[in-house]
Amino acid sequence: MAVWSPFSGSLSDRIEPRIVASVGMALAALGLVIFCFIHIAMPTWQLVAALIILGLGAAFFSSPNTNSVMGSVPREFYGVASATLGTMRNVGQAISMAIVTLITSLYIGNTPLGSNAGMLEKGIKLVFIVFAITSLAGIFCSLTRGSIYACNEPDLEFNDHK
User: Which ranges of 115-161 does DSSP label H, i.e. alpha helix?
Assistant: First the structure.
C-alpha cells in the first residue's frame, strides 16, 4: 500500500477518481474472496498473494477516494471534509473489529483459541465472507457516486454564505 498509494493518487488526478477507487475496491474484494477459502494447510504463497492483492486494493482505493472527497467540497470546507473522512475511516475500522469480535465469539465462545481450531477457522472464513460481500457492495457504491468534474463548478449556495 505504501508503495502504490502515491501512484494511485497521481493516477486519480488524470483519470476519474471514482473509477480508480472502484478498481481498488474490486482488488480488495478479490483479496478478501481469496481469504474466504483460507484453511490450516493453505500454502504461504497463497496467503502472501492474497495480502498483496488486498494491499494493492487498499492503495488504489484510499488515495483516489480522498481525492474525490476533497475535490467535491469548496476550499473553505477542506478541514471539515478531512476531519469527516478521518472519522468515517476510524468508525469503519471500529465497526469492522466489532463484527470480527462478534463472529469469533459466536464460533468459539469462551474456549481457548488453540483448543478449537476448526471452529476458529470457520469463524475466520465467515468474517472474510462478510467483508468480501461488503466490499462487493462498496464497488457499486463507489461507481455510482458523482463525477468529480461535475462537483468543481461554483456552487451558489456556498458563495451566498461568504
Answer: 117-144, 148-151, 156-159
> Over the stretch 118-147, which tens digit does the pLDDT of each residue have?
888 899 999 999 999 999 999 998 888 766
CB 30 within 8 A of CB 154: no
Rounded Cα distance, 152 and 131, in Å: 33
Listed in sequence order, the DSSP H helices in the chain are 5-14, 17-35, 44-71, 78-108, 117-144, 148-151, 156-159
Question: Mean pLDDT over all residues of the chain?
Answer: 87
57 near 31, Cβ under 8 Å?
yes
CA-closest candidate to residue 22, choices 60, 56, 48, 54: 60
Cβ of 53: how many Cβ atoms within 10 Å?
A: 19
